[in-house]
Specification:
alpha+beta; Archaeosine Trna-guanine Transglycosylase, Chain: A, domain 4; 4 domains; five-stranded mixed barrel; two-stranded antiparallel sheet; 53% helix; binds zinc ion
Length: 476
């Protein structure tokens, strides 16, 4: 009797303690107290129901909140296990679906090394994408941010008629998300994918842009100097085949984007790339050493589009670059192993800048080409005689140069051009004028106004003034 009374008050103490712990949210400790109660009094109804409830609470979060995901997670786990097992079996025959899964699980890029302004604003969580994708494909729910877009992507991938009769194809398109075949640099479907020696895949152009800044893998930072030296960016044909087989419509869209970009880069009136460096003139050669990352990109684009042209402008403290410039055409470009290059260019046409802008780190401009205004009759005859006089003056000056000076000039700009047979044939006027302006000891500021002049008479008068001034100062 005594013992029973003692255990009853003791039981009450544990019950009260357990209730206090419940109200504090300390579920595990409360459960322990109720279990103590039951060890003292196994028939205690209160302790029985409370312990059962707490036990349920402790185990519930998984089952209560995400019951529909259980099968999903387990399938994911078994899928991972499957991949692991497959990798451990060297004799495993290559399976695209397996390979894709591995690539998507492995693609957890740290921030790719690209300049902030070059990066797309879209933020991606590649380490989650596989998990999320599985979730969407099986539960069809759409609670995650950006879920709609991803789900649409998946639907598009699934809706592809990619040989639905082939069980492998349909299995692949079930697990294949276009996001798995995205370049981690441009966040778009791989275009002309290349793999680095460290095993990472990027679009050719994206990788080149990264290597302009730093010869390291943008993902794992492995040194790629040797790779860069060889400059053998081999396309991964397997990846291309996978994309064209399983994501044909995405590929068409990606090709369209590429073509649109190329068309944009090819426009020689709007957003023309501008090299801000030196004074360039029509018909005059202009050799350039290209080492800055933004200009490496610019030169590559000029070559890829096939225009082989860009504008050359002098620097301007206020506007960034001068309002007048000359379109240069690349005749030849030699790439060095470290990514630098030397471009042999020649001046083609003069232009006036209408609008200054920028693209991917280099300057661009909307431009308008300039042509000489033609004259006839008396004005034409006067022009011819002025031209002949100034040409003779120019010859006198050139012949007055010291041999080594002349050799240096001719080595750089070539010999002085002959007179044109027809004075007004070229919209640029006679080429010897431009050659002379390039070699005369004039500063850029003094040379620049000549680009803007569209009257041959005015240009010849200007040149005559310079030649007379030089002859005068020489004889003094
Ligand atoms: Zn890319
Ligand atoms: Zn790498």
């Amino acid at each position: 009797m005594m013992i029973r009374h003692m255990s009853s008050s003791c039981l009450q103490g544990h019950v009260r303690k357990a209730q206090a712990l419940v109200s504090l949210g300390r579920t595990e400790e409360a459960l322990r107290e109720y279990l103590v109660c039951l060890s003292i009094e196994p028939d205690c109804r209160l302790a029985q129901t409370e312990a059962h409830k707490l036990l349920g609470d402790l185990l519930a979060p998984v089952t209560d909140q995400v019951p529909e995901h259980i099968s999903d997670y387990s399938s994911l786990l078994s899928f991972r296990a499957h991949i692991k097992n497959s990798i451990n079996t060297p004799s495993q025959i290559f399976s695209p679906s397996l390979w894709l899964s591995v690539s998507s699980l492995a693609s957890t890029p740290p921030a790719p090394e690209m300049q902030e302004d070059e990066r797309k604003p879209e933020v991606r969580r590649p380490d989650h994408c596989f998990l999320l994708k599985r979730k969407w494909s099986s539960t069809d729910e759409n609670t995650e941010e950006g879920g709609q877009e991803r789900r649409d992507d998946h639907k598009r991938a699934k809706s592809e008629p990619a040989e639905a009769t082939d069980p492998l194809s349909s299995a692949v398109s079930d697990v294949l998300d276009p996001k798995d075949l995205e370049c981690s640099l441009c966040m778009r479907l791989f275009y002309e994918p290349v793999a680095t020696p460290c095993g990472h895949t990027f679009c050719l152009r994206c990788l080149e842009r990264c290597l302009d800044h730093n010869p390291k893998c943008p993902l794992c930072k492995e040194e790629l100097s040797e790779y860069l030296v060889q400059r053998q960016f081999c396309k991964t044909v397997l990846m291309e085949n996978l994309i064209s087989k399983y994501l044909p419509s995405e590929l068409i869209e990606r090709q369209r984007i590429h073509q649109d970009e190329m068309a944009e880069f090819s426009n020689l009136n709007k957003n023309v790339p501008i090299f801000v460096c030196t004074m360039a003139f029509p018909t005059v050669p202009c050799p350039l050493h290209i080492f800055e990352p933004c200009y490496r990109l610019m030169i590559r684009r000029c070559m890829e589009t096939g225009t082989k042209c860009f504008g050359m402008c002098l620097e301007d403290n206020l506007k960034g670059f001068a309002d007048y410039g000359c379109l240069l055409e690349i005749r030849d470009v030699k790439f060095f192993s470290d990514g630098r290059s030397v471009a042999d260019t020649i001046g083609r046409r003069r232009f006036k800048v209408i609008q200054h802008s920028e693209r991917d780190g280099y300057n661009t401009a909307d431009i308008e080409y300039l042509e000489d205004v033609k004259v006839e009759g008396v004005a034409q005859r006067e022009l011819q005689s002025l031209h002949d006089t100034v040409y003779d003056l120019a010859l006198v000056w050139v012949n007055s140069l010291k041999t080594e000076q002349k050799e240096r000039i001719e080595g750089h700009f070539g010999p002085m051009p002959q007179k044109d047979s027809e004075l007004q044939d070229s919209p640029n006027g006679p080429s010897w004028c431009w050659w002379l302006l390039a070699v005369l000891p004039l500063e850029g500021r003094a040379q620049l106004p000549f680009l803007a002049i569209t009257s041959l008479k005015e240009r010849l008068s200007g040149i005559r003034k310079v030649l007379l001034f030089m002859a005068h100062s020489k004889h003094r």
